[in-house]
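User: Hey, quick favor. My workstation is busy. Could you predict this chain's structure for me?
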Amino acid sequence: MAVHEHSQNRTASASGDAVSTLTDTLTGTPTARAYAFASLRLLTGFVFLWAFLDKTFGFGYATPSGKGWIDGGSPTRGFLSGVAVGPMESTFHDWAGATWADWLFMLGLLGVGVAVMAGVALRPAAVAGSAMMALMWIAEWPPAKHLSDGAPSMSTNPFVDYHVIYAVVLIALAAAGAGATWGLGRIWARIPVVRDHAWLR
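Assistant: No problem, here it is.
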């Protein structure tokens, strides 16, 4: 006679909804993993949102007081004009301070920050955030040992830096459906257009 034990493992729902992988299948309550992902989501979202706020208002951290976007400063001029290595060095110099670049960059920071913190549209946020991180990685070009002027680049790793880590985190959060705990992910997933177009989750 076979003895069947109730499995306590956590599995995805029949619909394949990633959100269920972060909850106990018997009780529907969040698991320790769900809380860990939620914490990671909130912290990562705040990195993007804080960058937007500091560059907009000039809180005196990365952006000096009085140099914020609302004061007429450019969120992209300082960073892009300072690019000193890599295959897109001259292109980034051309983009530095351009109105379209400022708006695109700031809307990206705001959109990714709000979406990730709220736990909604994690897949589009992962795509947008990863694209931003890829461009910033290219701007810093970690593979180079020396800058264009011959000075040491001070790169600590030729491949993996914090831009790569942030991109992977964004992708992991989207893949795990991490917006369900401490977020609006479940409500967002029930919106008809989101329910019908999984890429919006």
